From TrEMBL:
<dbReference type="Pfam" id="PF07992">
    <property type="entry name" value="Pyr_redox_2"/>
</dbReference>
<dbReference type="InterPro" id="IPR036188">
    <property type="entry name" value="FAD/NAD-bd_sf"/>
</dbReference>
<dbReference type="GO" id="GO:0050660">
    <property type="term" value="F:flavin adenine dinucleotide binding"/>
</dbReference>
<dbReference type="InterPro" id="IPR046952">
    <property type="entry name" value="GSHR/TRXR-like"/>
</dbReference>
<feature type="binding site">
    <location>
        <begin position="191"/>
        <end position="198"/>
    </location>
    <ligand>
        <name>NAD(+)</name>
    </ligand>
</feature>
<dbReference type="GO" id="GO:0004362">
    <property type="term" value="F:glutathione-disulfide reductase (NADPH) activity"/>
</dbReference>
<feature type="active site" description="Proton acceptor">
    <location>
        <position position="465"/>
    </location>
</feature>
<dbReference type="InterPro" id="IPR012999">
    <property type="entry name" value="Pyr_OxRdtase_I_AS"/>
</dbReference>
<comment type="similarity">
    <text>Belongs to the class-I pyridine nucleotide-disulfide oxidoreductase family.</text>
</comment>
<dbReference type="GO" id="GO:0005739">
    <property type="term" value="C:mitochondrion"/>
</dbReference>
<keyword id="KW-1015">Disulfide bond</keyword>
<dbReference type="InterPro" id="IPR023753">
    <property type="entry name" value="FAD/NAD-binding_dom"/>
</dbReference>
<dbReference type="Pfam" id="PF02852">
    <property type="entry name" value="Pyr_redox_dim"/>
</dbReference>
<dbReference type="InterPro" id="IPR004099">
    <property type="entry name" value="Pyr_nucl-diS_OxRdtase_dimer"/>
</dbReference>
<feature type="domain" description="Pyridine nucleotide-disulphide oxidoreductase dimerisation">
    <location>
        <begin position="365"/>
        <end position="475"/>
    </location>
</feature>
<keyword id="KW-0560">Oxidoreductase</keyword>
<keyword id="KW-0496">Mitochondrion</keyword>
Amino acid sequence: SNQSPCKNHHLACYVDYLVIGGGSGGIASARRATEFGINALLIEHGPLGGTCVNVGCVPKKVMFNAAMHAEMLHDHKDYGFNVPAGTTFDWSVIKKKRDAYIKRLNGIYAANLNKANVTTVLGHATFTGEKNPTPIVEVGGEKYTAPHILIATGGYPVIPSDDDIPGASNGITSDGFFELEDLPKKTVVVGAGYIAVELAGILNALGSETRLVIRRHQALRAFDSMISENVTNEIEASGITLDKFSQVTNIVKDATSGKMTITIQCSPSGGRSKSTVVDNVDCLIWAIGRKPNTNINIDKVGINLDNRGNVVVDKFQNTNVEGVYAVGDVQGKALLTPVAIAAGRKLAHRLFDGKTDWHLDYNNIPTVVFSHPPIGTIGYTEAEARTLHGDDKIKTYSASFSPMYHAMTKRKTKVVMKLVCLLPEEKVIGLHMQGLGCDEMLQGFGVAIKMGATKAQFDDCVAIHPTSSEELVTLR
């Protein structure tokens, strides 16, 4: 870290901008602020880059890429390649390279902060409860304050308590997934959100005997119904054992073998309840949700939290305390790296660059789930659109087909696509798709939808043949 940025101050080290959290949002905001001659200080207790770089998007995508290789191995013979029997996968090779890649990224983040003259303080920040006039923050015995303080502390994955589910602490979370040294032979993943779906998909593709335990009848229930239905079918078709209407009720770990015996209770609505005992489980992953990191004595400053513990902010990322802001996962909306980055940068422009009205538009944020095959979605689901505008104002177009890649293969995955349009001009207000290539297909359509494109404008664009993406401009 570079030389002390403190301006003389009797109570605390005083800077222009104090950022708590060195993840996507905090780093982006601090760096952007220094471009306007602002003296910024950033506090982080762990490796730089936050969830995304260390235990999120980045290592996950590396594993997804590995899993794609595994899936395509099944297709090599269909495309005329003689793949020797007994081709094996060595988890430790990719783990070592992945860890090295992340270390490299940590270094790049540190170098970028340094280059921008952001002072980095290593340690855990807490509010002292003092104000002068904005709150004072303490790290390792040193006190800091600024007229503008950004909370960008992120979130963490939750695990049930052993009181609620006996033996729950024998499980790991997505964080622990990235610490695994070997491919587990047998895995149980609990959860129906995108993290559960992605991790189960990766493990299954790489050769772990995988079970996914979900509470209702479908995974990804917050997505468009077409996606929930299709992803659930693809999960089952891929060879994952899917326990629907189910919950894990008990976990017993054998002290000698280290293997777990897991009881899964299935209670379908209206049906008979039954329990299944799964033994010899090497790895139990809880992917049941995330909570905000607010363990920084946030109550001492009187910052409002919602009933889930998220920091409450307005559209300008202001908290209820003057001079204190929050971006990223800690504020509970759209928990995505590019959202935190965009919100953090917009905030820096608003505070230090005179752009008084700048704020992030949380509508039409494109997102991708790296499932097998991947999902792309932007805008309203059909159900949301109908609730918002009324049935008579909504028209949808959809398609479902087998992509050309699978014309040669025994293994099949589907492509499903849907446009949600608002009448009378058929403005596209939602786009949902799952299938090979959908992850890289969405960004450009995202631009079009953000610009307010109509169905007629989609159709006006000449199709690119032969691709899956051409379906989106030829829907009838």
